[in-house]
Structure formats: structure tokens, C-alpha cells
Amino acid sequence: MLGAGGFKTAHPGWLSLTPLVESGLGSIPGQNVAVKRPFHKVFPSASSFMYKIGRFSSVNEIAKLFKEANVLYWSHSLLQLTYAFINHCTASSDEPPPFSIPRMCFIDAGLAFSYSQHDSKPTRMGSKPGSTCVRYLVEELIEGGPDTFLKFIHNMDSNPLLDEDDYRYHMALFFLSHNMFSM
Questions:
Q1: Which residue in 156, 140, 155 sits closest to 105, CA to CA?
Q2: How far is CA 66 from the centre of its chain?
Q3: pLDDT band at residue 176 using 50, 70 and 90 as cut-offs
Q4: What are 26-32's contacts with CB under 8 Å, separation 24+?
Q5: 109: exposed, middle or buried (Cβ count in 10 Å: 0-12, 13-18, 19+)
């Protein structure tokens, strides 16, 4: 296991799509990925701080994974729109801005479903309908740790992970918020 956060476990995995996509997640055969599943904490007793990982029902797990994937999809779109606005403004300006513009990104992710045909009854046409047995959020795996990637926020808290006295705190988070508000 790569780790467990506030509500997802992360496991190492690899992804091979057929056919490969042109770029991004799934563009490399056998691409290393983080395979994630939501969980809830099961405490053996009310006074215990230790917990076991409990899994959601299929319906609840699918709903949580689709919500997560949808948030990532819209986050990517808003960020692309923000940088298109920034690029347009800097291209039409006579002078470059007096500061460097932070370039942030969201990880690439997608949903993966494992299907089973066990105990399936043939349909009238003779084929067996599959049923999902496991669902995953598949995310690109960022190699190199904190030296190559700085995580600004995470799902469990909307507060930035950076300290307020870190110069990147104000520049990155509020710069993009201002531009999104201005559009």
C-alpha cells in the first residue's frame, strides 16, 4: 500500500489502455499509477484511536468515485480556462508581468471498473452480462516526492497545506482565485 488518507487507500498499480491515448494518463504501456478506493473508518470500540478499513457498498462506492472524478474533471477545466486568460493577457500586454506566474496542475485521473461474469445467467442472445466487482480511481503516480511536486491542498480540508509565511502561499492560491473571479 502506498498509504491511506482521510478517506481513500492508495495502492501501486499499472495501466495499459488499448489503444493508447495520445498524451497523459494511459499514453504509456504499463504506466505506473496510484490505484485508489474510498473507505470508512471502523473503530472496534468507542475509546479506541486505532481503526480498521471498512469498504462502502457498491452503490455508495461508485457514487463517491464518480463525484471525485467529476471534481477533478471540472478542476482541470477551470485551471485551463484560467491559464488561457492569463496567456491572453500577457500576450496582449506591452510588458511582461513584474512577477513570475505560478504554473500549477491537477493530477490526471480516471475511473477503472473490474468486471466479473461469475454466477451470471446468459441473456437471450447467449452472452453473459458482467457485473462490477471492484471500482477504482486511477491517478498518475508522481515520482520524486516533495522535491518535484508541491501539494497545495487536499480533499479533507479546504485550507492550504502551505504555511502563510511561505512566499508561494499568497502568490499561487490567491493569484489563481483572483483570475477565476475576474473571468
A1: 140
A2: 11
A3: low
A4: 26/110, 31/140, 32/141, 32/143
A5: buried
On whether the CB atoms of residues 49 and 152 are closer than 8 A, the answer is no
Question: Comparing 174 with 37, which gets the higher pLDDT?
Answer: 37
Nearest to 36 by CA among 4, 82, 67, 14: 4
d(CA 85, CA 4): 37
Task: Give the three cell numbers for residue 92.
Answer: 496582449
Q: What is the DSSP string of 31-72?
A: EEEEEEEE-EEE-SSTT----EEEPPPHHHHHHHHHHHHHHH
Is the CB of residue 33 less than 8 Å from the CB of residue 139?
Answer: yes
The pLDDT of residue 53 is above 80: yes
Residue 15: which of 39, 1, 43, 36 has the closest Cα?
36
